[in-house]
Amino acid sequence: MRFDVLTLFSEMFSPLKTSILGKAQEKKIIDINVINIRDFSKDKHKKVDDTPYGGGAGMVIRPDVVYDAYNSIEGRDNAKVIYLSPQGKTLNQEKVESLAKENHLILLCGHYEGIDQRVLDEIVDEEISIGDYVLTGGELPSMVLIDSVSRYIEGVITKDSINEESFSNGLLEYPQYTRPETFLDKKVPEVLISGHHENINKWRKEQSEYITKIKRPDLLENKNK
Are the C-beta atoms of residues 30 and 145 closer than 8 Å to each other? Predict the structure, then answer.
């Protein structure tokens, strides 16, 4: 899977070089290429924005600079272009799994008051939001998307981890425990140290249903539709 990210703040993406995603890049399972939109400004001060037509607060990113940055990407015609925007459809597990089937994603990060609509109409295939709130830019949402999608790329993490995690079956994940067996006078549930796999699986299923009912009853409602 290849990710190309169009942003004004390329330095924000250094965390993606660490941990699981860093190892996946070292193994060439995923490729994350960050492109600084400002590099394509023809202004001697590298200015990329201007005042909005019609007036109003803030600045708008120019369409020509974004378009030139987009055109610098090899293989762009076969890529899916996503604009990270609070106006987009909310990212969920179903969408994550769908995007993981793509070979090439181009992620466009907005900033300031947004990007000129004309270039969005020209190059963007889909708008995605990570929640009903507004951030200072699309950089953090794009990192969230890259992280969530990458986990479904074969070889990034084990299949067992994916199959048993929250939302994989419409439920939240059951509680996890490890050593020591007793901590702050609280013991690990007996069933987990019994060695009886059928009972363990039953307990985990019951716990997932209970936790989902308490924390996210809306998931159960959707599951029963």
Answer: no
Give the Cα separation of 167 and 96 in Å (integer): 11
For residue range 59-87, list pLDDT tens digits in order. 999 999 999 999 999 999 999 999 999 99
Report DSSP letters for 166-223, one per residue: TTTTSSPPPP---S-SEETTEEPPGGGGS--HHHHHHHHHHHHHHHHHHH-HHHHHHH
- What's phi and psi for 99, nearest 5 deg? -65, -30
Residue 103's CB is within 10 A of a number of other CB atoms, namely 10
Conformation bin of residue 113: beta by default, left when phi > 0, alpha when psi is -120 to 50:
alpha
Find the helix packing angle between 139-150 and 19-26, rounded to 10°.
70
| 67, 37 contact by CB (below 8 A) | no
Q: Is the pTM above the cut of 0.85?
A: yes
